[in-house]
Specification:
By secondary structure, this protein is of the alpha+beta class. It is about 20% helix and about 30% strand. A hairpin with an 8-residue loop joins strand 5 and strand 6.
Length: about 160
């Protein structure tokens, strides 16, 4: 996973179980690929660079300031436009993610999914998710803290939009 000036890039490998009867990634399974690309960006997973380590790289913020963020983020809205099939052929697909909106109680990530790992591979889908922090103990949405808002603006590329 890498961070470019205008977007974050994740390489996600579709699995055989993601395939439909036509040999393409099933439309519903594409949503899972979006999640697999998003989780390391927001919560730190295995990455190739310590600069891309999500909450583990807190840009001067203590992990405790972001602990509630990792406990509960829910998808409020999901929109996907399918443009071309993704063939399950053992190659990873490139998922480009950009922060496009940051509000006090939600944020929006835009995605561009390509048919292969390269920047010039065909765009297979574009998508957007509106995400909101969620208080698991109270069972309701909550506002983003200042530390969480700062984390998002510093860590998730916006391409100059936020």
């Amino acid at each position: 996973m890498t961070r470019e000036a205008s977007h974050y890039v994740a390489q996600v490998r579709p699995r055989w179980s993601d395939m439909d009867a036509f040999g393409h990634v099933n439309h519903a399974r594409l949503v899972t690929l979006l999640e697999e690309a998003r989780v390391p960006l927001l919560f730190g997973g295995t990455t190739s660079s310590s600069d891309d380590a999500g909450l583990r790289c807190d840009h001067g913020r203590r992990a405790s300031e972001l602990s509630e963020f990792a406990k509960g983020i829910v998808v409020v809205r999901l929109h996907v436009d399918y443009r071309a099939p993704i063939v399950v052929d053992g190659r990873a697909v490139r998922v480009e993610i950009t922060l496009t909106d940051l509000r006090y109680a939600s944020f929006t990530l835009d995605y561009r999914v390509r048919t292969g790992p390269a920047e010039d591979d065909t765009v297979a889908a574009t998508a957007a998710t509106v995400l909101a922090p969620y208080d698991l103990e109270r069972g309701r949405p909550r506002r983003l803290t200042e530390a969480e808002r700062a984390f998002l603006t510093e860590h998730v590329p916006s391409g100059g939009r936020v």
